[in-house]
Amino acid sequence: MAIRKIAQLGEPVLRRKADRIEPHEIGSQRIQVLIDDMIETMHDADGAGLAAPQVYESVQLCVIEVNQNPRYPQFDAIPLTVLINPVVTPLVVSAGVLAAEDSFEMYEGCLSVPGMRGKVTRPRKVRVQALDRRGQALDFEWESFRAVVVQHETDHLNGALYVDRADPKTLMFLREYERHVPLAQRILDQGKPVLRS
Description:
Blueprint (H helix, E strand, L loop, with lengths): L28 H16 L4 E3 L9 E6 L11 E13 L12 E8 L2 E11 L1 E7 L5 E7 L1 H13 L4 H4 L6 E2 H7 L2 H4 E3 L2 E2 L4
């Protein structure tokens, strides 16, 4: 396993739609080493997830895990999850602008956009369909923070970053975020604060 360099905002690889991984390729040494390297890189950077384009590999693959992560102490653990060719479908009633009961709003950050945060509102419940690292089919529902993480990572596979979805007036450097955004405004689940001072 190796820790790979993380692509930063401005790298072309972050702006192209990643290629599908064919089922016969999943067991190859190339893909299995890539998965291991991505897990190692995600752990080293204290990330909640990492998409292959972030390590300069333009393929439909992401890894997710939250386990005693110092960046996300307020959230329940997410077991290590490897998603190949994922399809994420929102499971919300609202059409267009999300109603509060269908939304999860938080100041997101990204390993490819270090030192910044911006407020993003996403569907709070999604269906995830993908293949795992053995090529087995996955089909499950995630909600709340888990739904946000999987949407953030799969956006990378389509050439999108959280800054594309953030309210531009909320983009700020981490120091200013910590100084000026009250805890009760940082994360809203169904319109209600997750954090309290």
